[in-house]
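ok trying this again, last paste got cut off
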Amino acid sequence: MKRPAYHNVASGVPDQWPIRKALTLSDVDITHPFLTLARQLVENHILVHLMPQEQERLRVEGQVDINAQDDDTGDMHAMKLKWRGSYYNLIGKWGKLVRAKGLDVGQEIKIRWINGCLHFSVSPKQVVAVPPLRMVTAPLAQDHWPVKKVLTLSDVDANHPFLPLPRRSVEDHILVHWTPQQREILRNEEQVNVNARDYDTGEVYVMKLKWRGNYYNLIGKWGTIVRMKGLGVGEEIRLRWANECLYFSITPERSAAAAPGQALDQWPIKKALTLSDVDTNHPFLTLPGKSVEDHILFYWSPQAQEQLRNENQINVNARDDDTGELYLMKLKRRGSYYNLIGKWGKIIRGKRLNVGREIRVRWENGCLIFSVPQ
């Protein structure tokens, strides 16, 4: 996973701008104007300078009035700092600032607190090479597959294999996750290699995304995919960018029809419990990193993935499919694997789990579902 967009500049002297952030799509959205800032940075470099009364107001009311000065122009603005749990929002005149300064994705904003006032600066020419991310707590994306297309006759013509995709959809839901350098390569060379993964089968293909003005073509192995999956006119393909890869899938109804009598496995993660998994003195369930990322994190929004990346753990709702019981648990990142912690010890005792039993896991409707067959 990539590092978060928040960072401090390494140097031999303290940075006069301790908070720096590459602006994301949500930061420059004037329809819902707010600037999202990381909790730890705000508490370390802003809240420590507030008066005790202001800190108390922020704790009780969830927001506090502050003065903010634009160091580029000298203009002063009355704004609010709002607490959102794992992050803070700067609201008030932010939408006006976005419009007035012409702020865009990738530009860097620098923030500091001096003499009772929040100071900020945005260099018009500086672009930080990080994919746009924002931090919210919602664990489930609004739409797992934001790009959808009903296949036409030309789309499934294996003699001229390419899949045209609308420009706006590609730029809003795929290119937005690329670094400025990657987008520049596409603009200059008009095509770029991408890894494409068939989510239904797990097959990975090296393909090309080619810019064609008002649309983009997906080329390379498209003819092979058409033949192998037996694609026809009227079927729907769904696409999404996640984990540096273009995922695609044919609608579940179509997939089931393509393989009569072979239902898709509803339990993509299965594991035989080990001694450490059933140790009630140190209760946690270890899950392979790749399985978690492919079958759980894949369904999360980029914001929730970023929260997990920053804090190394995140609350999840877990439901025992065998009993219907709900548990509030935590998913903890441990490098090449993940731990499920919280109520795991209680589950071990309640279900009398022991070494060798199989646990099955899936993600569904914002909840981690698990089952231990008898």
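PB: full thing came through this time. The longest strand covers residues 117-127.
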